[in-house]
């Protein structure tokens, strides 16, 4: 069963499903809350290095922010990434702390000029900056121009962020706060609303 099929069956059964990217549902249809993936459940592909990195910043009882959180530093560096990418990719929107409260991430860059709308949702590529460990990821890669991925990775690295592939994060969270339904995946642990 693919991840999408599993999410669909969970949504139809009334269970929560993982949402990646910035999506605005326009109906109550379960499809509005799912993102396709070609990876099959049970064949997780997170490398030991990625797992070690995620575990390193998984602080017990630190839901939204780690004990050494420095909002000003993260925002200054994220805004530099934003400025650099604006020059190359047109209309981008910097989303700050006000838009991402009660979350394990606080800042995002939305590629508004690359969004796709249909009758169910709006999907746009988005870079998210975790509140933990200088981690960053981006979603909806397929909607970006071919060279954008490399440009994003280079900008993140240049300003001290460590990239984690968003697909790797769609695995069960088995860190210090597990088992906990509120933090069921690594995506939620570091890049989503709690």
Kindly describe this structure.
α3 packs antiparallel against α4. Mean pLDDT is 79; it is low at 1-43. This protein has helices at 3-12, 48-56, 71-89, 148-158, 186-191; strands at 22-23, 93-95, 105-110, 116-117, 122-124, 126-130, 135-139, 162-163. β6 and β7 (135-139) form a beta hairpin. The protein has 194 residues and is of the alpha+beta class. The strands form 2 sheets. Strands 2-3-6-7-8 form a 5-stranded mixed beta sheet, with helices on one face. A 3-stranded antiparallel beta sheet has the order 1-5-4, with no helix packed on it. The radius of gyration is 16 Å and the shape is globular. The longest helix has 19 residues, at 71-89.
| Shape descriptor | globular
* DSSP E strands, number: 8
Low-confidence stretches: 1-43
Helical coverage, percent range: 25-40%
End-to-end gap: 27 Å
Proportion of strand residues = 5-15%
Rg, rounded, reads 16 Å
Please trace the helix and strand order, writing H or E for each element.
Answer: HEHHEEEEEEHEH
Task: Please identify the structural class as seen in this structure.
Answer: alpha+beta
Overall average pLDDT: 79
Strand order in space, largest sheet: 2-3-6-7-8
User: How many strands, which pairing sense, and closed or not: the largest β-sheet?
Assistant: 5 strands, mixed
Number of helices: 5
Compact overview of the structure:
The chain is α+β, with helices and mostly antiparallel strands and 194 residues long.
